[in-house]
Amino acid sequence: MPTQELEALRFIRYEAADAIGYITLNRPDKRNALSADMVTELKLAFEYAEDDDACKVVVLRAEGSAFCAGADLAYIQELQGFGYTDNLADSTHLMQLFHQIYTLKKVVIAQVQGHALAGGCGLVTVCDFAFSVPEARFGYTEVKIGFLPAIVSVFLLRKVGEARTKQLLLTGDVLPAARALELGLLTAVVEPAELAAHVYAFARRLCVENSTQSMEITKEMLARLPEMPLEDSLRYAAQLNAEARGSVDCRRGIAAFLAKEK
Length: 262
Fold this sequence. Notes:
By secondary structure, the protein is α/β, with parallel strands linked by helices.
């Protein structure tokens, strides 16, 4: 059962079923806009999901018509009174959440049923997979209000490359789901009536067919490789390859493959 802290969450819900941990943004009256408290609750929920034995894959989803509209308007107004020290602490708070999701040991899938803008689009960016309805819109709109999409830029560069990152961040354009798919922000676009079932089937396939250990190490490897020189990255990859061969999962998997079993 969830801890008392999880049970006390106001803006987030967490539950696990069929080896899938569901983290649900539950502030539909505010279009699931991000506030400092909501970021805190998201960090707690992802921390819990990472250690939850009942969860092998995480799905990030939302209640209401919007997935996440970015920063809360009241919170943006509050930021105007912040000094540099307070602003740095607040930026670090969001940075920690994005880094936590990106480096989480478990695969994270975004189930996007509505618009994902600014910080909301950032949440989608740091997930490993993202499935969206056709009607959803995506955009990093910070530049239009004199703000910077600074934290997400670190992850977006890795995801779609420099040219597309410049196009997205410097224009602040809001894109339809089909265009977001073309640019590599999304895994697939699915009709609204099929979205939940599609995400469930995809998550269950990862749970049933894939090694937990292999997915975890692969995620860590892909996060670290871009920072390494070529020769260092190859040595690191060879080391992981050798270590994996001696693992229990690999031995069981090879034995099953040779025996023509799953």
